[in-house]
Amino acid sequence: MQQTIYCLVLCLKTAEWKQEVLRILPPYMALKTLREIILHLWLHLAAVGKEEFTFKELEEDFRNAAEKSVNPIVRGEYERCLPVLSDLLEVLVRAGLLVVDQKGVYKRREHFNEFWYFISHILSVEKLVKWGIYYLTKQGKTFFTPENLVEVIAPEDVKNIEKGLSDLVIFEDGEWKRVLEKRNERWIIKKIYPYTSPSLLKPFLISDFHNKLLFSIQVLSQNRTEFVTEDVIKLIQLKEQEEVERVLRKLRFKKHRNEWLTGRKNVDAFIEDLESPLRLPRGWIEVNCLNLLDRGSYSWTELVEITKADPSTLSRSLNRLKKAKVIILKGEGKWGRRYYITNCDNCPFLTDKETCKSALISEIESMMREMKMPKPTVDLKHFSNQVLKRFIDLISEIKMDRTEKTDVQEFRQLIDAMFGPSLLLLLEDQEKAKVIYEKYGVKYATELMEKEYPMPYMYSSAAKKTTRLLTEEKKL
């Protein structure tokens, strides 16, 4: 047993760690929900500033997140995650990404962060199918059916679908409304969410569970007003298998009856460049733009630079989003640049504006308590939802970097070397600065700077504000 563990560790320390890990882990690990579990796990470890955790701690973390969520869709995702947490940890241990001792304490291995980075780049059906083929082949399969691939790429328990249908909601007229009503064994369609454009949808296989169900109901509602659970299951399976077969034909696999043969294909080559960008999947640009615009305004030029998308393709994507009225013009800048932002009155994420703001303010206050900082004296309701989200992102990064990891310490040294001298000159008279901050109603800003968080823009923005305030004091 010890020799086996030693061989696995040795393998993970080499450049071939990916082959060993992907041989053990099925590709459904890269789907959004599980990817977010791993990210949550990663952030949990970083936020608490330690390398170890127990299953009980992680489970409690997820339960708290589910209880705090005001969005029933997000809450449902957390609840779906809970039953698979134990299995997830077990498979990560088998893959050598986590290690657990006899007391049930888990600790990250050296390739844990690399693996999360890797799966965060698996954004297309083609990549998932390649990983699935590699996984099945390493399990001894020389042929497989589309159903086999779907089982390892996007497995769904019938119980999940049954519960998902009973919890299925859309946001309408300022409240969450159920889409279906169950009578005996049949589902009666009450509400249909009209998708604004098929171009905004991701491929079915990698869509969110909630969107899969909504899309299925939309298709079924074209010729009926009620259905049974089995109808949804068959439709989901059909759509997923069609997408898998499309990729298999593209990869030129041979088909015999309903089975696809691996033949003499070098399946090891399938995983060599999985994290490398391919042609972006349908809907990816729109989703990426929405995530950016939901935290502030950006121009077309800025979005092109950030997303690295083709300029003409991104222009068409923005036009689709404008036509769907999920983004609006925020203002204009130099040289006629037009800045866009998400439309809170027609939220692309199906959330009510005031409900969203309340949840964001609650989250900010919770984060401030965790950091042992006083409750904000300003009225956060006066700020836009996008600004509040950006502030939460900033505090989250600060929390994550409050660790004693070697790379973080080195990063601090670089920031201190670059920004430290200027900041020290500006803060020579610390007592006067504090008085001025208090006068301007931001009395805890100086203490925040003194904590020396490793954030360049925290340093630069703090320095600029101190300069302005000291200047104002001289005028007084």
If you had to describe this structure to a student in words, what would you say it looks like?
This protein has 476 residues and is mainly alpha-helical. The protein contains 21 helices and 14 strands. It has a 3-stranded antiparallel sheet. The longest helix has 22 residues. The termini are far apart. The N terminus is likely disordered.
Short description:
The protein is mainly α and 476 residues long. The protein has helices at residues 2-12, 17-24, 32-47, 55-68, 72-81, 85-94, 112-119, 125-138, 146-153, 158-167, 209-220, 229-250, 284-293, 300-307, 311-323, 353-370, 385-400, 406-426, 430-439, 445-450, 456-475; strands at 52-54, 98-100, 105-108, 143-144, 169-172, 175-178, 180-183, 186-189, 226-227, 254-256, 259-261, 298-299, 327-332, 338-342.
